[in-house]
Amino acid sequence: MIEFIDVYKSFNDHEVLKGLTFKVNQGESFAIIGRSGCGKSVTLKLMTGLLKPDKGKVIIDGIDITKATPGKLAQVRKKFGFLFQSGALLNSLNVGDNIALPLREHRELPEPKIMGRVSETLKRLGLKHLEHIMPGELSGGMKKRVSLARAIIREPEIILYDEPTTGLDPIMCNVINKLIVEMRQKLKITSIVVTHDMNTVFMAADRVVLLYQGKIISAGTAAEFKKMGDAYVKQFVLGEAAGPFQDEDELKLKEKSGE
Amino acid sequence: MNYLTNPFRSITITLSHILETLGMTLTILINMVGQYRLIPKRSKAILHQIEICALGGFPVAIIVGVFSGMVLALQAGLAMAEFGQETLVGSIVAASMCREMGPVMTSYILAGLIGSTMAAELGTMKVSEEIDALEVMSINPIGFLVLPRVLALALVCPLLTIYTNLIGILGGGIVSRVILKVNFSLYFRFAQETLTLKDIYSGLFKSLIFGFIIALVSCGQGLNAENGAAGVGKATMKAVVISFIAILIFDYFLTWMFY
Ligand SMILES: Nc1ncnc2c1ncn2[C@@H]1O[C@H](COP(=O)(O)OP(=O)(O)OP(=O)(O)O)[C@@H](O)[C@H]1O
Ligand SMILES: [Mg+2]
Protein backbone atom coordinates (compact mmCIF):
# COMPACT_ATOMS: atom_id res chain seq x y z
CA MET A 1 0.00 0.00 0.00
CA ILE A 2 1.18 3.49 -0.84
CA GLU A 3 0.20 6.41 1.31
CA PHE A 4 0.91 10.14 1.06
CA ILE A 5 0.07 12.04 4.23
CA ASP A 6 -0.06 15.83 4.07
CA VAL A 7 2.95 16.15 1.75
CA TYR A 8 4.44 19.56 1.00
CA LYS A 9 7.12 20.17 -1.58
CA SER A 10 8.51 23.40 -2.94
CA PHE A 11 11.44 24.35 -5.15
CA ASN A 12 13.01 27.62 -4.04
CA ASP A 13 9.94 29.85 -3.60
CA HIS A 14 7.72 27.81 -5.86
CA GLU A 15 5.28 25.70 -3.83
CA VAL A 16 4.34 22.68 -5.93
CA LEU A 17 2.57 20.37 -3.48
CA LYS A 18 0.60 21.83 -0.60
CA GLY A 19 -0.79 19.10 1.59
CA LEU A 20 -1.17 16.17 -0.79
CA THR A 21 -2.90 13.18 0.82
CA PHE A 22 -3.97 9.95 -0.84
CA LYS A 23 -3.82 6.21 -0.50
CA VAL A 24 -3.37 3.50 -3.14
CA ASN A 25 -4.28 -0.05 -2.24
CA GLN A 26 -2.40 -3.10 -3.32
CA GLY A 27 -3.33 -4.32 -6.80
CA GLU A 28 -5.16 -1.13 -7.57
CA SER A 29 -4.76 0.94 -10.68
CA PHE A 30 -4.60 4.60 -9.78
CA ALA A 31 -4.52 7.51 -12.20
CA ILE A 32 -3.26 11.00 -11.45
CA ILE A 33 -4.36 13.70 -13.84
CA GLY A 34 -3.82 17.41 -13.82
CA ARG A 35 -2.52 20.27 -15.87
CA SER A 36 1.03 20.48 -17.07
CA GLY A 37 3.34 21.61 -14.28
CA CYS A 38 0.95 20.80 -11.44
CA GLY A 39 3.37 18.37 -9.79
CA LYS A 40 2.49 14.91 -11.12
CA SER A 41 6.04 13.89 -11.95
CA VAL A 42 7.21 15.38 -8.66
CA THR A 43 4.68 13.15 -6.89
CA LEU A 44 6.13 10.04 -8.52
CA LYS A 45 9.66 11.12 -7.59
CA LEU A 46 8.59 11.64 -3.99
CA MET A 47 7.08 8.16 -4.03
CA THR A 48 10.42 6.60 -4.96
CA GLY A 49 12.50 8.77 -2.65
CA LEU A 50 14.24 10.61 -5.51
CA LEU A 51 12.94 13.81 -3.93
CA LYS A 52 12.37 14.45 -0.25
CA PRO A 53 9.22 16.26 0.87
CA ASP A 54 9.57 19.43 2.93
CA LYS A 55 6.86 18.14 5.22
CA GLY A 56 4.65 15.06 5.47
CA LYS A 57 5.02 11.32 5.15
CA VAL A 58 5.38 8.96 2.23
CA ILE A 59 4.64 5.43 3.37
CA ILE A 60 5.29 2.37 1.20
CA ASP A 61 4.06 -0.89 2.70
CA GLY A 62 4.36 0.48 6.22
CA ILE A 63 7.79 2.07 5.77
CA ASP A 64 8.10 5.86 5.85
CA ILE A 65 10.66 6.34 3.09
CA THR A 66 11.28 9.97 4.02
CA LYS A 67 13.05 8.67 7.12
CA ALA A 68 14.47 5.40 5.76
CA THR A 69 18.22 4.71 5.70
CA PRO A 70 19.83 4.40 2.24
CA GLY A 71 19.93 0.61 2.62
CA LYS A 72 16.27 0.41 3.54
CA LEU A 73 15.35 2.77 0.73
CA ALA A 74 17.20 0.61 -1.79
CA GLN A 75 15.21 -2.37 -0.51
CA VAL A 76 11.89 -0.55 -0.88
CA ARG A 77 12.86 0.62 -4.37
CA LYS A 78 13.17 -2.98 -5.53
CA LYS A 79 9.38 -3.11 -5.40
CA PHE A 80 9.15 -0.40 -8.06
CA GLY A 81 9.33 -0.20 -11.81
CA PHE A 82 9.43 3.39 -13.03
CA LEU A 83 8.72 4.66 -16.51
CA PHE A 84 10.20 8.17 -16.51
CA GLN A 85 8.48 10.89 -18.48
CA SER A 86 11.75 11.49 -20.32
CA GLY A 87 12.46 7.79 -20.72
CA ALA A 88 15.84 8.10 -18.97
CA LEU A 89 17.50 5.26 -20.88
CA LEU A 90 21.24 4.90 -20.31
CA ASN A 91 22.71 6.30 -23.52
CA SER A 92 25.92 4.31 -23.23
CA LEU A 93 24.15 0.92 -23.27
CA ASN A 94 22.26 -0.65 -26.16
CA VAL A 95 18.54 -1.35 -25.94
CA GLY A 96 18.97 -4.96 -24.83
CA ASP A 97 21.44 -4.10 -22.06
CA ASN A 98 19.25 -1.23 -20.92
CA ILE A 99 16.26 -3.49 -20.49
CA ALA A 100 18.30 -6.31 -18.97
CA LEU A 101 20.02 -3.97 -16.50
CA PRO A 102 17.62 -4.31 -13.53
CA LEU A 103 17.57 -8.10 -13.88
CA ARG A 104 21.33 -8.40 -14.29
CA GLU A 105 22.23 -6.07 -11.46
CA HIS A 106 20.20 -7.95 -8.93
CA ARG A 107 21.03 -11.39 -10.33
CA GLU A 108 17.39 -12.32 -10.45
CA LEU A 109 17.68 -14.62 -13.46
CA PRO A 110 20.50 -16.65 -15.02
CA GLU A 111 22.08 -14.88 -17.99
CA PRO A 112 20.66 -17.06 -20.81
CA LYS A 113 17.13 -16.55 -19.53
CA ILE A 114 17.60 -12.78 -19.32
CA MET A 115 18.06 -12.29 -23.06
CA GLY A 116 14.99 -14.46 -23.73
CA ARG A 117 12.95 -12.34 -21.39
CA VAL A 118 14.25 -9.15 -23.01
CA SER A 119 13.29 -10.15 -26.54
CA GLU A 120 9.91 -11.37 -25.32
CA THR A 121 9.20 -8.03 -23.66
CA LEU A 122 10.39 -6.10 -26.73
CA LYS A 123 8.09 -8.16 -28.91
CA ARG A 124 5.16 -7.37 -26.67
CA LEU A 125 5.77 -3.68 -27.23
CA GLY A 126 6.15 -3.98 -30.99
CA LEU A 127 9.93 -3.58 -30.95
CA LYS A 128 11.21 -6.91 -32.26
CA HIS A 129 14.96 -7.35 -32.88
CA LEU A 130 16.01 -3.97 -31.55
CA GLU A 131 18.38 -5.33 -28.86
CA HIS A 132 21.56 -4.10 -30.51
CA ILE A 133 20.44 -0.57 -31.36
CA MET A 134 21.73 2.33 -29.27
CA PRO A 135 19.11 4.58 -27.62
CA GLY A 136 20.37 7.58 -29.61
CA GLU A 137 19.18 5.91 -32.80
CA LEU A 138 15.57 5.45 -31.65
CA SER A 139 12.57 7.69 -32.28
CA GLY A 140 10.89 9.38 -29.32
CA GLY A 141 8.02 6.90 -29.20
CA MET A 142 10.39 3.95 -29.48
CA LYS A 143 12.48 5.28 -26.58
CA LYS A 144 9.35 5.53 -24.51
CA ARG A 145 8.47 1.91 -25.21
CA VAL A 146 11.99 0.70 -24.48
CA SER A 147 11.82 2.53 -21.14
CA LEU A 148 8.48 0.90 -20.53
CA ALA A 149 10.08 -2.47 -21.22
CA ARG A 150 12.78 -1.70 -18.66
CA ALA A 151 10.14 -0.69 -16.09
CA ILE A 152 8.09 -3.85 -16.45
CA ILE A 153 10.74 -6.50 -17.10
CA ARG A 154 11.17 -7.52 -13.48
CA GLU A 155 7.39 -7.66 -13.03
CA PRO A 156 7.74 -5.55 -9.90
CA GLU A 157 5.03 -5.13 -7.27
CA ILE A 158 4.36 -1.52 -8.18
CA ILE A 159 4.75 0.17 -11.57
CA LEU A 160 4.79 3.94 -11.96
CA TYR A 161 3.94 5.13 -15.44
CA ASP A 162 4.71 8.79 -16.17
CA GLU A 163 2.75 9.61 -19.31
CA PRO A 164 3.06 6.17 -20.92
CA THR A 165 1.25 7.11 -24.13
CA THR A 166 2.60 10.60 -24.84
CA GLY A 167 4.32 10.71 -28.20
CA LEU A 168 2.86 7.42 -29.44
CA ASP A 169 0.54 6.82 -32.38
CA PRO A 170 -3.09 5.93 -31.58
CA ILE A 171 -2.58 2.24 -32.33
CA MET A 172 0.41 2.00 -30.03
CA CYS A 173 -1.48 3.95 -27.34
CA ASN A 174 -4.07 1.25 -27.36
CA VAL A 175 -1.44 -1.47 -27.09
CA ILE A 176 0.09 0.26 -24.07
CA ASN A 177 -3.27 0.83 -22.40
CA LYS A 178 -4.04 -2.87 -22.81
CA LEU A 179 -0.66 -3.78 -21.41
CA ILE A 180 -1.28 -1.69 -18.29
CA VAL A 181 -4.62 -3.46 -17.79
CA GLU A 182 -2.98 -6.84 -18.34
CA MET A 183 -0.14 -6.19 -15.90
CA ARG A 184 -2.69 -5.46 -13.23
CA GLN A 185 -5.12 -8.26 -14.01
CA LYS A 186 -2.66 -11.10 -14.56
CA LEU A 187 0.10 -10.17 -12.15
CA LYS A 188 -1.87 -8.14 -9.58
CA ILE A 189 0.62 -5.31 -9.98
CA THR A 190 -0.23 -1.98 -8.37
CA SER A 191 -0.16 0.68 -11.08
CA ILE A 192 0.08 4.41 -10.75
CA VAL A 193 -0.48 6.17 -14.03
CA VAL A 194 0.19 9.84 -14.65
CA THR A 195 -1.42 10.82 -17.89
CA HIS A 196 -3.10 13.44 -20.03
CA ASP A 197 -4.75 10.72 -22.09
CA MET A 198 -8.38 10.25 -21.04
CA ASN A 199 -8.50 6.94 -22.92
CA THR A 200 -5.84 5.56 -20.61
CA VAL A 201 -7.80 6.79 -17.60
CA PHE A 202 -11.06 5.23 -18.73
CA MET A 203 -9.48 1.99 -19.92
CA ALA A 204 -6.87 1.29 -17.30
CA ALA A 205 -7.69 3.10 -14.08
CA ASP A 206 -9.83 1.99 -11.16
CA ARG A 207 -9.58 5.28 -9.37
CA VAL A 208 -8.67 8.78 -10.55
CA VAL A 209 -7.58 11.92 -8.79
CA LEU A 210 -7.35 15.39 -10.23
CA LEU A 211 -4.43 17.47 -8.95
CA TYR A 212 -4.68 21.26 -8.89
CA GLN A 213 -2.71 23.86 -6.97
CA GLY A 214 -0.83 21.29 -4.93
CA LYS A 215 -3.85 19.33 -3.75
CA ILE A 216 -6.36 16.76 -4.91
CA ILE A 217 -9.50 18.65 -5.89
CA SER A 218 -11.58 15.67 -7.02
CA ALA A 219 -11.37 11.91 -6.69
CA GLY A 220 -13.53 9.05 -7.83
CA THR A 221 -13.72 5.95 -9.98
CA ALA A 222 -13.05 6.29 -13.68
CA ALA A 223 -16.76 5.80 -14.41
CA GLU A 224 -17.69 8.50 -11.95
CA PHE A 225 -15.23 10.91 -13.54
CA LYS A 226 -16.82 10.40 -16.92
CA LYS A 227 -20.14 11.77 -15.81
CA MET A 228 -19.14 13.91 -12.86
CA GLY A 229 -20.85 17.28 -12.58
CA ASP A 230 -17.78 18.94 -11.00
CA ALA A 231 -16.83 21.93 -13.12
CA TYR A 232 -13.06 21.26 -12.88
CA VAL A 233 -13.41 17.61 -13.86
CA LYS A 234 -15.73 18.50 -16.72
CA GLN A 235 -13.36 21.08 -18.10
CA PHE A 236 -10.42 18.70 -17.84
CA VAL A 237 -12.12 15.61 -19.25
CA LEU A 238 -13.63 17.52 -22.15
CA GLY A 239 -10.49 19.62 -22.62
CA GLU A 240 -12.20 22.99 -22.80
CA ALA A 241 -10.31 26.25 -22.78
CA ALA A 242 -12.93 28.11 -20.76
CA GLY A 243 -13.70 27.00 -17.21
CA PRO A 244 -12.65 27.22 -13.60
CA PHE A 245 -8.95 26.30 -14.16
CA GLN A 246 -6.71 29.31 -13.96
CA ASP A 247 -3.34 29.64 -15.58
CA GLU A 248 -0.41 29.35 -13.23
CA ASP A 249 1.13 32.52 -14.65
CA GLU A 250 -2.02 34.53 -14.06
CA LEU A 251 -2.18 33.21 -10.51
CA LYS A 252 1.39 34.22 -9.84
CA LEU A 253 0.76 37.71 -11.14
CA LYS A 254 -2.27 37.99 -8.89
CA GLU A 255 -0.27 36.77 -5.91
CA LYS A 256 2.36 39.41 -6.61
CA SER A 257 -0.14 42.23 -6.89
CA GLY A 258 -1.58 41.08 -3.59
CA GLU A 259 -5.03 39.97 -4.64
CA MET B 1 27.91 42.41 -7.48
CA ASN B 2 29.22 42.95 -3.97
CA TYR B 3 32.27 40.80 -4.64
CA LEU B 4 34.51 43.69 -5.54
CA THR B 5 33.31 46.22 -3.01
CA ASN B 6 33.21 43.83 -0.10
CA PRO B 7 36.28 41.58 0.02
CA PHE B 8 35.21 39.95 3.27
CA ARG B 9 31.98 38.78 1.70
CA SER B 10 33.76 37.34 -1.32
CA ILE B 11 36.17 35.49 0.95
CA THR B 12 33.36 33.91 2.97
CA ILE B 13 31.54 32.90 -0.21
CA THR B 14 34.68 31.31 -1.66
CA LEU B 15 35.35 29.55 1.62
CA SER B 16 31.84 28.15 1.76
CA HIS B 17 32.17 26.93 -1.85
CA ILE B 18 35.44 25.19 -0.99
CA LEU B 19 33.95 23.52 2.08
CA GLU B 20 30.89 22.47 0.12
CA THR B 21 32.99 20.91 -2.63
CA LEU B 22 35.20 19.21 -0.08
CA GLY B 23 32.23 17.79 1.80
CA MET B 24 30.55 16.58 -1.37
CA THR B 25 33.72 14.92 -2.66
CA LEU B 26 34.41 13.25 0.68
CA THR B 27 30.85 11.93 0.84
CA ILE B 28 31.31 10.31 -2.56
CA LEU B 29 34.70 8.92 -1.50
CA ILE B 30 33.24 7.32 1.62
CA ASN B 31 30.30 5.92 -0.31
CA MET B 32 32.69 4.54 -2.93
CA VAL B 33 34.93 2.87 -0.39
CA GLY B 34 31.81 1.19 0.98
CA GLN B 35 31.27 -0.34 -2.48
CA TYR B 36 34.64 -2.08 -2.71
CA ARG B 37 32.96 -5.49 -2.79
CA LEU B 38 31.59 -4.59 -6.22
CA ILE B 39 35.06 -4.47 -7.79
CA PRO B 40 34.92 -8.00 -9.28
CA LYS B 41 31.38 -7.40 -10.54
CA ARG B 42 32.47 -4.17 -12.22
CA SER B 43 35.65 -5.60 -13.74
CA LYS B 44 34.28 -5.25 -17.27
CA ALA B 45 33.42 -1.60 -16.72
CA ILE B 46 36.82 -1.00 -15.11
CA LEU B 47 38.64 -2.49 -18.11
CA HIS B 48 36.51 -0.41 -20.45
CA GLN B 49 37.40 2.75 -18.56
CA ILE B 50 41.10 1.83 -18.52
CA GLU B 51 40.96 1.54 -22.28
CA ILE B 52 39.27 4.94 -22.61
CA CYS B 53 41.74 6.66 -20.27
CA ALA B 54 44.84 5.08 -21.77
CA LEU B 55 43.88 5.59 -25.41
CA GLY B 56 42.73 9.14 -24.72
CA GLY B 57 45.83 10.19 -22.81
CA PHE B 58 48.53 8.39 -24.76
CA PRO B 59 49.03 10.61 -27.84
CA VAL B 60 49.04 13.85 -25.86
CA ALA B 61 51.31 12.35 -23.23
CA ILE B 62 53.93 11.77 -25.93
CA ILE B 63 53.92 15.38 -27.11
CA VAL B 64 53.91 16.79 -23.59
CA GLY B 65 56.65 14.36 -22.52
CA VAL B 66 58.98 15.25 -25.36
CA PHE B 67 58.62 18.98 -24.93
CA SER B 68 58.84 18.92 -21.13
CA GLY B 69 62.14 17.06 -21.41
CA MET B 70 63.39 19.38 -24.13
CA VAL B 71 62.53 22.52 -22.18
CA LEU B 72 64.15 21.13 -19.05
CA ALA B 73 67.34 20.25 -20.91
CA LEU B 74 67.50 23.61 -22.63
CA GLN B 75 66.90 25.67 -19.49
CA ALA B 76 69.17 23.67 -17.25
CA GLY B 77 71.78 23.04 -19.92
CA LEU B 78 72.19 26.68 -20.94
CA ALA B 79 72.50 27.76 -17.30
CA MET B 80 75.01 25.02 -16.57
CA ALA B 81 77.00 25.73 -19.72
CA GLU B 82 77.98 29.08 -18.22
CA PHE B 83 79.96 27.13 -15.64
CA GLY B 84 81.04 24.49 -18.10
CA GLN B 85 78.92 21.88 -16.34
CA GLU B 86 76.55 21.04 -19.23
CA THR B 87 77.65 17.40 -19.23
CA LEU B 88 75.60 16.96 -16.03
CA VAL B 89 72.36 17.93 -17.78
CA GLY B 90 71.21 14.28 -17.88
CA SER B 91 70.98 14.14 -14.09
CA ILE B 92 68.86 17.26 -13.90
CA VAL B 93 66.45 16.22 -16.63
CA ALA B 94 65.99 12.69 -15.30
CA ALA B 95 65.47 13.74 -11.70
CA SER B 96 63.08 16.58 -12.55
CA MET B 97 61.09 14.45 -14.98
CA CYS B 98 60.61 11.53 -12.62
CA ARG B 99 60.03 13.47 -9.45
CA GLU B 100 57.99 16.40 -10.68
CA MET B 101 57.39 17.12 -14.34
CA GLY B 102 56.29 13.65 -15.39
CA PRO B 103 53.61 13.09 -12.74
CA VAL B 104 52.33 16.66 -12.73
CA MET B 105 52.23 17.20 -16.50
CA THR B 106 50.62 13.81 -17.11
CA SER B 107 48.01 14.55 -14.46
CA TYR B 108 47.26 17.94 -15.97
CA ILE B 109 46.71 16.35 -19.36
CA LEU B 110 44.49 13.68 -17.89
CA ALA B 111 42.49 16.27 -15.93
CA GLY B 112 41.88 18.19 -19.16
CA LEU B 113 41.21 15.18 -21.34
CA ILE B 114 39.63 12.52 -19.15
CA GLY B 115 38.40 14.46 -16.13
CA SER B 116 36.40 16.82 -18.31
CA THR B 117 34.94 13.88 -20.25
CA MET B 118 33.88 12.18 -17.04
CA ALA B 119 32.27 15.32 -15.65
CA ALA B 120 30.41 16.00 -18.89
CA GLU B 121 29.25 12.40 -19.23
CA LEU B 122 28.00 12.03 -15.68
CA GLY B 123 26.59 15.56 -15.74
CA THR B 124 24.56 14.76 -18.84
CA MET B 125 23.36 11.57 -17.20
CA LYS B 126 22.32 13.57 -14.16
CA VAL B 127 20.32 16.19 -16.01
CA SER B 128 18.66 13.63 -18.29
CA GLU B 129 17.43 11.64 -15.26
CA GLU B 130 19.64 8.62 -16.03
CA ILE B 131 21.11 8.81 -12.52
CA ASP B 132 17.60 8.92 -11.06
CA ALA B 133 16.70 5.87 -13.14
CA LEU B 134 19.70 3.99 -11.73
CA GLU B 135 18.70 4.89 -8.19
CA VAL B 136 15.14 3.72 -8.68
CA MET B 137 16.52 0.41 -9.98
CA SER B 138 18.40 0.18 -6.64
CA ILE B 139 21.69 0.50 -8.52
CA ASN B 140 24.09 2.74 -6.62
CA PRO B 141 25.37 5.27 -9.20
CA ILE B 142 28.61 5.60 -7.28
CA GLY B 143 29.33 1.89 -7.46
CA PHE B 144 28.11 1.70 -11.05
CA LEU B 145 29.75 4.79 -12.52
CA VAL B 146 32.26 6.38 -10.15
CA LEU B 147 34.09 3.30 -8.84
CA PRO B 148 35.23 2.01 -12.27
CA ARG B 149 36.32 5.47 -13.39
CA VAL B 150 38.31 6.25 -10.27
CA LEU B 151 40.08 2.88 -10.25
CA ALA B 152 40.84 3.10 -13.96
CA LEU B 153 42.34 6.57 -13.82
CA ALA B 154 44.31 5.79 -10.65
CA LEU B 155 45.90 2.93 -12.58
CA VAL B 156 46.36 4.64 -15.95
CA CYS B 157 47.86 7.83 -14.54
CA PRO B 158 51.07 6.16 -13.21
CA LEU B 159 51.34 4.03 -16.36
CA LEU B 160 51.19 7.08 -18.59
CA THR B 161 53.64 8.82 -16.28
CA ILE B 162 56.20 6.10 -16.98
CA TYR B 163 55.81 6.87 -20.69
CA THR B 164 56.02 10.60 -20.17
CA ASN B 165 59.16 10.17 -18.08
CA LEU B 166 60.89 7.96 -20.63
CA ILE B 167 59.97 10.15 -23.55
CA GLY B 168 60.89 13.30 -21.62
CA ILE B 169 64.35 11.95 -20.83
CA LEU B 170 64.72 11.02 -24.48
CA GLY B 171 63.65 14.52 -25.58
CA GLY B 172 66.14 16.03 -23.15
CA GLY B 173 68.82 13.81 -24.66
CA ILE B 174 68.12 15.11 -28.14
CA VAL B 175 68.39 18.74 -27.04
CA SER B 176 71.63 17.96 -25.18
CA ARG B 177 73.09 16.34 -28.26
CA VAL B 178 71.99 18.96 -30.79
CA ILE B 179 72.25 22.19 -28.85
CA LEU B 180 74.57 21.53 -25.91
CA LYS B 181 76.76 19.07 -27.83
CA VAL B 182 76.71 16.55 -24.98
CA ASN B 183 76.79 13.06 -26.45
CA PHE B 184 74.09 10.49 -25.72
CA SER B 185 76.15 8.03 -23.71
CA LEU B 186 77.32 10.73 -21.32
CA TYR B 187 73.79 12.11 -21.00
CA PHE B 188 72.27 8.73 -20.24
CA ARG B 189 75.07 7.71 -17.90
CA PHE B 190 74.45 10.76 -15.68
CA ALA B 191 70.70 10.27 -15.96
CA GLN B 192 71.02 6.69 -14.78
CA GLU B 193 73.49 7.44 -12.02
CA THR B 194 71.44 10.18 -10.43
CA LEU B 195 68.07 8.48 -10.51
CA THR B 196 67.25 6.65 -7.30
CA LEU B 197 64.48 4.12 -6.90
CA LYS B 198 62.79 6.60 -4.62
CA ASP B 199 62.67 9.25 -7.35
CA ILE B 200 60.79 6.82 -9.53
CA TYR B 201 58.34 5.35 -7.08
CA SER B 202 57.58 8.62 -5.32
CA GLY B 203 56.70 10.09 -8.71
CA LEU B 204 54.52 7.16 -9.62
CA PHE B 205 52.82 7.23 -6.25
CA LYS B 206 52.04 10.90 -6.80
CA SER B 207 50.52 10.03 -10.17
CA LEU B 208 48.36 7.37 -8.62
CA ILE B 209 46.99 9.83 -6.08
CA PHE B 210 46.51 12.52 -8.74
CA GLY B 211 44.63 10.12 -11.03
CA PHE B 212 42.42 9.07 -8.16
CA ILE B 213 41.67 12.69 -7.25
CA ILE B 214 40.97 13.80 -10.82
CA ALA B 215 38.42 11.04 -11.38
CA LEU B 216 36.82 11.48 -7.96
CA VAL B 217 36.50 15.26 -8.32
CA SER B 218 35.27 15.08 -11.91
CA CYS B 219 32.67 12.41 -11.22
CA GLY B 220 31.55 14.33 -8.15
CA GLN B 221 31.05 17.52 -10.17
CA GLY B 222 29.17 15.56 -12.83
CA LEU B 223 26.85 13.89 -10.34
CA ASN B 224 25.99 17.28 -8.87
CA ALA B 225 25.27 19.01 -12.18
CA GLU B 226 21.98 20.89 -12.32
CA ASN B 227 19.96 22.97 -14.77
CA GLY B 228 20.43 21.26 -18.11
CA ALA B 229 23.17 21.86 -20.64
CA ALA B 230 24.48 25.02 -18.98
CA GLY B 231 24.86 23.11 -15.72
CA VAL B 232 26.82 20.36 -17.46
CA GLY B 233 29.17 22.97 -18.94
CA LYS B 234 29.71 24.52 -15.54
CA ALA B 235 30.32 21.14 -13.90
CA THR B 236 32.92 20.33 -16.56
CA MET B 237 34.73 23.61 -16.06
CA LYS B 238 34.70 23.20 -12.30
CA ALA B 239 35.95 19.62 -12.57
CA VAL B 240 39.05 20.74 -14.49
CA VAL B 241 39.78 23.78 -12.32
CA ILE B 242 39.34 21.92 -9.04
CA SER B 243 41.47 19.03 -10.33
CA PHE B 244 44.28 21.44 -11.28
CA ILE B 245 44.22 23.12 -7.89
CA ALA B 246 44.00 19.81 -6.04
CA ILE B 247 46.99 18.44 -8.00
CA LEU B 248 49.07 21.47 -7.02
CA ILE B 249 48.15 21.26 -3.35
CA PHE B 250 48.61 17.51 -3.09
CA ASP B 251 51.87 17.75 -5.03
CA TYR B 252 53.29 19.99 -2.36
CA PHE B 253 52.26 17.77 0.52
CA LEU B 254 53.29 14.53 -1.18
CA THR B 255 56.70 15.97 -2.02
CA TRP B 256 57.07 17.16 1.55
CA MET B 257 56.12 13.67 2.75
CA PHE B 258 58.72 11.94 0.59
CA TYR B 259 61.71 14.26 0.92
N1 LIG C 1 14.22 19.72 -9.92
C1 LIG C 1 13.39 20.77 -9.96
N2 LIG C 1 13.85 22.01 -9.66
C2 LIG C 1 13.05 23.08 -9.68
N3 LIG C 1 11.73 23.03 -9.98
C3 LIG C 1 11.21 21.83 -10.30
C4 LIG C 1 12.01 20.65 -10.31
N4 LIG C 1 11.22 19.61 -10.66
C5 LIG C 1 10.00 20.13 -10.87
N5 LIG C 1 9.98 21.46 -10.66
C6 LIG C 1 8.80 22.35 -10.76
O1 LIG C 1 7.71 21.69 -10.17
C7 LIG C 1 6.53 21.89 -10.92
C8 LIG C 1 5.87 20.56 -11.17
O2 LIG C 1 6.68 19.81 -12.05
P1 LIG C 1 6.25 18.39 -12.59
O3 LIG C 1 7.37 17.90 -13.43
O4 LIG C 1 5.82 17.54 -11.46
O5 LIG C 1 5.00 18.74 -13.50
P2 LIG C 1 3.99 17.71 -14.19
O6 LIG C 1 2.70 17.81 -13.47
O7 LIG C 1 4.62 16.38 -14.29
O8 LIG C 1 3.83 18.38 -15.60
P3 LIG C 1 3.80 17.69 -17.06
O9 LIG C 1 2.42 17.20 -17.27
O10 LIG C 1 4.11 18.82 -17.97
O11 LIG C 1 4.81 16.62 -17.05
C9 LIG C 1 6.92 22.64 -12.16
O12 LIG C 1 6.49 23.97 -12.02
C10 LIG C 1 8.42 22.59 -12.21
O13 LIG C 1 8.92 23.81 -12.64
MG1 LIG D 1 5.47 15.31 -15.68
Summarize the main sheet of chain B: none
CATH architecture of the domain at 1-79 and 160-165 and 190-225 in chain A: 3-Layer(aba) Sandwich
The total of helices of chain A stands at 10
Topology as H/E string of chain A?
Answer: EEEHEEHEHHHEHEHEEHHH
Interface with most residues: A-B, 20 and 15 residues
Uncertain regions of chain B: pLDDT < 50 for 5+ in a row?
none
Give Rg of chain B in angstroms: 21 Å
Strand content range of chain A: 15-25%
- What multimeric state do the chains show? heterodimer
- Terminal-residue CA separation of chain A: 41 Å
CATH class of the domain at 1-79 and 160-165 and 190-225 in chain A: Alpha Beta
The portion of residues forming beta strands of chain B comes to under 5%
Please provide a written account of the structure.
The complex is a heterodimer of chains A (259) and B (259). Chain A has ten helices and ten strands. The mean pLDDT of chain A is 89. Chain A is an alpha/beta fold. Chain A has helices at 40-47, 70-77, 95-105, 111-124, 140-152, 170-187, 198-204, 222-226, 231-238, 248-256; strands at residues 2-11, 14-24, 29-34, 55-60, 63-64, 80-83, 158-162, 190-194, 207-212, 215-221. Among the domains of chain A are: 1-79 and 160-165 and 190-225, Rossmann fold (3-Layer(aba) Sandwich), CATH 3.40.50.300; 229-259, no CATH class. Chain B is an all-alpha fold and 259 residues long. Chain B has one domain (45-258). Chain B is elongated. Chain A binds chain B through residues 45, 48, 50, 74-75, 77-78, 80, 82, 84, 86, 88-92, 101-102, 105-106, and chain B through 121, 124-125, 128-130, 132-140. The complex binds adenosine-5'-triphosphate and magnesium ion (MG). Magnesium ion (MG) is lined by residues 40-41, 85, 162 of chain A.
Write the layout of secondary structure elements.
The complex is a heterodimer of chains A (259) and B (259).
Chain A: E1 2-11, E2 14-24, E3 29-34, H1 40-47, E4 55-60, E5 63-64, H2 70-77, E6 80-83, H3 95-105, H4 111-124, H5 140-152, E7 158-162, H6 170-187, E8 190-194, H7 198-204, E9 207-212, E10 215-221, H8 222-226, H9 231-238, H10 248-256
Parallel strand pairs in A: 3-8, 3-9, 6-7, 7-8
Antiparallel strand pairs in A: 1-2, 1-4, 4-5, 9-10
Helix pairs in contact in A: 3-4, 3-5, 6-7
Chain B: H1 7-33, H2 43-81, H3 89-127, H4 130-136, H5 141-178, H6 184-194, H7 197-223, H8 228-258
Helix pairs in contact in B: 1-7, 2-3, 2-5, 3-5, 3-6, 3-7, 3-8, 5-6, 5-7, 7-8
The complex binds adenosine-5'-triphosphate (ATP) and magnesium ion.
Residues 11, 16, 34, 36-42, 85 of chain A line the site of adenosine-5'-triphosphate.
